[in-house]
Input
Amino acid sequence: MDEIFDTIIIGAGAAGLTAGIYTSRAKLSTLILNEGAIGGQMVLTEEIANYPGLPVTKGYVLADNMKSQAKSFGCKIKSNIKITKYNLDDEIKSVELEDGRKFKSRTIILTPGGTPRSLNIEGEDEFKGKGISYCATCDGDFFTGKEVVVVGGGNSALEEAVALTNFATKVTIVHLFDHFQAFKHAVEEAEKNPKIEFIMESELRGFYGNTQLEKVSVEHLPSGKRSELKTDGTFIFIGYQPNTTDLKNEVELNDRNEIVVDSDMKTNIKGVFAAGDCINKKYRQVTTAVADGTIAALSVAEYLRN
Ligand SMILES: Cc1cc2nc3c(=O)[nH]c(=O)nc-3n(C[C@H](O)[C@H](O)[C@H](O)COP(=O)(O)OP(=O)(O)OC[C@H]3O[C@@H](n4cnc5c(N)ncnc54)[C@H](O)[C@@H]3O)c2cc1C
Output
């Protein structure tokens, strides 16, 4: 308990585990504290096909390899914990857990990741990874030659719908309103694409199928009329929530609740760094989380040297 770690990493996803690999390999005493399953979003991913140098791999396998690699360099990992108190401002920082344990450190790396927003409707949990996806870059290729639905009306939804036409034969965008909340050029590009159709003022009500998604129920909001739409897949792009609620009064967040960092992954608090899906950035992938985690770890090493 009296040990002062060189760094404590909050979150054991791709960003946190990578930071742990780098700091412990640099002989910095490192503790990773993780609330959920080790591996974060990677373990929610059936197959990862775009991690350079690896053949298509199960998400949990990649996560397990990262964990073993970090441990092999001496990184300590504690999971299923709940942090109740942060003290980030002092030179020696500390975090307190629900069970009363307290851990001290010279630096902190925040890597709590995030969660794509769900529709929270019938069948969504059942068909996640079995036709329902939240990432076109990750899963678009699985729908080559098939028909998909895209839910959403912002920039991500429209840009990803256009990207999906590289794979799918037909993309149907289902959107709540009679207009889009996206930039004009994104709307125009989607509208002129012959593979894209639009169902406006409508909302999905359920996902159905046997082992794989086969159809969705769509409600036309002005009339209340429901219809069924056959589909091989549905991509949901209705926003993203960084896991930063507990950090609101601890570090600077932007209006999307992302942790504000500079290019060295430094936050506004001396000795506190952040990396991965929780930071202010556009692209959220395993590769980008790994890159951010690397930069944060190297910045920690430089901070401690100075
Ligand atoms: C369904 C799905 C499929 C995807 N497919 C791909 C793909 O094929 N290829 C690809 O490159 N990317 C894919 N992604 C995106 C990729 O998984 C993420 O961008 C990346 O894993 C993010 O890593 P991270 O470490 O920043 O965050 P996360 O993976 O979210 O990890 C954060 C960790 O921190 C923990 N945590 C949160 N809050 C706290 C706290 N207060 N205290 C302690 N621990 C905390 C969480 O439990 C979690 O374990 C996919 C994402 C999803 C959801």
